[in-house]
Amino acid sequence: MRVVAAMSGGVDSAVAAARMLDAGHEVVGVHLALSQSAATLRESARGCCTIEDAGDARRVADVLGIPFYVWDMASRFREDVVEDFVAEYAAGRTPNPCLRCNEKIKFAALLDKALALGFDAVATGHYAQVVERADGGRELHRAVDSGKDQSYVLGVLDADQLARAFFPLGDTTKPQIREEARERGFYVANKPDSHDICFIADGDTRGWLTSRLGEQPGEIVDADSGEVVGAHAGAYSYTVGQRRGLGLDRSTLDGAPRYVVGVDTRANRVTIGTADLLGVNAIRGDHARWCGPPPEGVVAVGAQVRAHGEEVPAQAWADGDDVQVRLSSRLRGVAPGQSVVLYEGTRVVGSATIAQSWLDR
User: Fold this and answer.
1) Of 341, 351, 343, 346, whose CA–CA distance to 290 is shortest?
2) Angle CA(64)–CA(67)–CA(70) in degrees, nearest 5?
3) Among the four 61, 68, 96, 134, which has the fewest Cβ within 10 Å?
4) Residue ranges at the known binding site for ATP
């Protein structure tokens, strides 16, 4: 099988490419250039798309003896991920750019280009497992290493994309991957993991958004009293469930912690309240993506709303283009724009973008 190995320049994608080669596939390494002004050194860019990273990926490809290319997808990334990120926050939602990148870039733009060039599949260094059923169908499952499991951010893959995806690291822990990289003589064996949002170099999301949307002074209002208790520079930079960075004068409150319970970017208003106002047990999601056939009727699932959040037992059903989810217990800080990913055991059933959440009594 002819396989494109997406090589970010990190240790995970390096070992993934090596394992695909060991499995007997014809492998070509590809690094995605996603930034039109990539910083030269990781110290000034904490993501996975720097010039330094491209060089690291090339060195691994040289060790493996495989062809290596850099594919420029900066324009597509800017439109589908970066601009979408800004638009979502501007609308008062909290997006996950990693899911959008997997959906729009790695398993749409990259996979489409690979297929057009005659390749059969794409392999990445994500921590997840693909299980082949007896009928030849494929299922997406959680990784063995629960601390590194990335099945949540892969929940946007549909059955056709999953049929052409390989995740060679899903049965291995991260320490084992680093040891394997050292044994293979990879320079990146001890390279730190990328973190935070790759296109926000300093990790300051609020400052980054402000530089693009400008300051928009507005009020912070208490949900119980309706009184104005503070001010903000832009409602777009707040998210439901947020506690830190509110800048409130605690002496004017009753001493109980306050959280963001509502963001209204049209009125440019942030509403805060006590923790009891955060709990929800009902979710409506749109933009449904199924890793196989949609469920028929009401099904028992586990629901997860953050990349490293807890999985909560739930019931879910398809409702036209939407997904309805009823949680068995209340969950705090469920924000519009986040993704809810549904599981059956370790298997990913599908995902949806959270449009609405509420307490269904």
Assistant:
1) 351
2) 115
3) 134
4) 6-13, 32, 125
Q: Is 101 a catalytic residue?
A: yes
* Packing angle, helices 174-183 and 11-22, rounded to 10: 70
Of residues 48, 49, 98, 198, which has the active-site annotation? 198
Residue 198 annotated among the catalytic residues of the structure: yes
Which strands form 26-33's sheet, in the order they lie side by side? 68-72, 26-33, 2-6, 121-123, 165-166
- Rounded to the nearest 10 degrees, the angle between the axes of helix 11-22 and helix 51-64 is 20
Instruction: Name beta bridge partners: 130.
Output: 140
Write down the catalytic residue from 48, 49, 98, 101. Answer: 101
Question: Chain-centre distance of CA 340, in angstroms?
Answer: 11
Written as tens digits, the pLDDT of the chain (361 aa) is 999 999 999 999 999 999 999 999 999 999 999 876 655 434 444 445 678 889 999 999 999 999 999 999 999 999 999 999 999 999 999 999 999 999 999 999 999 999 999 999 999 999 999 999 988 889 999 999 999 999 999 999 999 999 999 999 999 999 999 999 999 999 999 998 876 688 887 889 999 999 999 999 999 999 988 999 999 999 999 999 999 888 887 656 777 889 999 999 999 999 999 998 999 999 999 999 999 888 899 999 999 999 888 999 999 999 888 999 999 999 998 999 999 999 999 999 999 999 999 998 7
Which domains, and CATH codes, for the chain?
2-190 (3.40.50.620), 215-276 (2.30.30.280), 280-358 (2.40.30.10)
H or E segment and range at residue 68: strand 68-72
The stretches of the chain forming alpha helices (DSSP H) are 11-22, 51-64, 74-77, 83-90, 97-101, 110-116, 159-162, 174-183, 205-213
Amino acid at 180: E
Residue type, position 156, single letter: V
User: Looking at the DSSP assignment, which residues form a beta bridge with residue 113?
Assistant: none
Whole-model pTM: value is 0.92
What tokens does 144 get?
């063995």
Pick out the residues of the known binding site.
6-13, 32, 125
